[in-house]
Design a protein that fits this description.
about 450 residues, Four Helix Bundle (Hemerythrin (Met), subunit A), Rossmann fold, 434 Repressor (Amino-terminal Domain), 21 helices, globular, disordered C terminus, binds guanosine-5'-diphosphate, binds magnesium ion
Length: about 450
Amino acid sequence: MFNNLTDSFKNAIGKIRFHDDEKALKKATTELKKSLLKSDVHHKVVKDLISTVELETKKYGVGKDNFLKALQDKLTDILTIEGAPRGFTFASNPPTVVLMIGLQGSGKTTTTGKLAHFLKEQKKKKVLIVAADLQRLAAVEQLRQIASNIEVDLVADESAKPIEIVKQGLSKAKKELYDVVLIDTAGRLAIDDELMEELAEVKKVANPDELFYVADAMTGQDSVRTAQTFKEKIGITGVVLSKFDGDAKGGVALGLTQQVGVPLRFIGNGEKMPDLEQFIADRIVSRLMGAGDIEGLAERAASSIDPKEAKRMTQKIKKGQFNFNDFLAQMEQMKKLGSMKSIMGMIPGMGNMAKQIGDMDLENSEEIKQIKALVSSMTPKERENPELLNNTRKRRLALGSGLEVMHVNRVLKQFKNASKMAKKMSTKGGMKEMQKMMQQMQGGGGMPNIPR
Ligand SMILES: Nc1nc2c(ncn2[C@@H]2O[C@H](COP(=O)(O)OP(=O)(O)O)[C@@H](O)[C@H]2O)c(=O)[nH]1
Ligand SMILES: [Mg+2]
């Protein structure tokens, strides 16, 4: 997600040795400045970042550790607003009411669904969505489909006025003890007075705990400017940057919090419901420094993996009983976790891997298709016991799956290796060994974690 930025920081850090002179520091910061500007980080933010990092590094002596520490501290600083909540926080008196606002097409409705999904699956909350965009009939229908997909309740009435529907939603939420109410509102193509008046009215009635401005990352610095305007005219408590998957540069995310004076709270990085990530300063900084985001990964895994199932699987792997049924089940689990790329970026030292993997599509990859075809040609006994597969059976499988015997052998070998590797990883110290291997593959690998 932040490949470009992570590379910029890594390069700069790589330029400084353990004990170095001010000339080396200047070289590193000059390069960092250039690449941050190229990544579309606002020039004022870049200037502030560079001058603080230079000053702080010199203060404690030019060297790798001091440079890293100064960079980490300053990054955390520019991504944080004093007193703002860390992650999504709930009102002390439920329901927590969230108003979603923004321009038309920015991603409000999609983000409303993603946020509902996040709160339901990861925070285990009872969520109600209110369809207060009554400008277009299609908008209500879109939300109806999203809500039914993620199995979240919806209040919608095409013939009502926005304020009426908001009132209805709030009273239902209070009566039926919902934890969170998300209100999706209408947008316009550009900022106009009529829109602002309607939103102000909805805001008065809804009395929201959070006002999330949804900004389209693809519009670059424009998204920052419109956020500023909405902050002045309506007041906002957070920004959600949508369509971040389409913005290769990513620099807007780095400057936005300081520029708008309101924290960036979430990032949307795909069209699907799980494609929403919390933007939490210390976690993001860890990722930017190439140290991964273990907390975020665990959160994501917890919401999509059944712990009982995971335990059963680990037991089987340890005993060497991993079979083809498990293999298919594991692939289904991986799909739920989201794209490989976004997962890899969260594992320490694996940022580079993420780039190599690119947009590997588990569902459509040729290899996965072959494996699926092969497994579906197996009898239930064969699926449970890979050892049964002798040459006669392999020939039958080849015919059944439309693969060459050669391919069958290759897939079977891959499976054997995978289960061996899995067994190894499930032992004590196995994960460490795996990381070491990954780092060797990348020629040096991840950044060290600097103790504070
Ligand atoms: N690639 C991508 N597309 C998105 C994202 N968020 C929204 N979209 C798409 O952007 C378009 C407009 O989104 P919508 O939620 O209807 O915007 P609204 O008018 O503000 O409610 C839709 O086609 C969405 O699928 C995102 O994070 N990534
Ligand atoms: Mg909409």
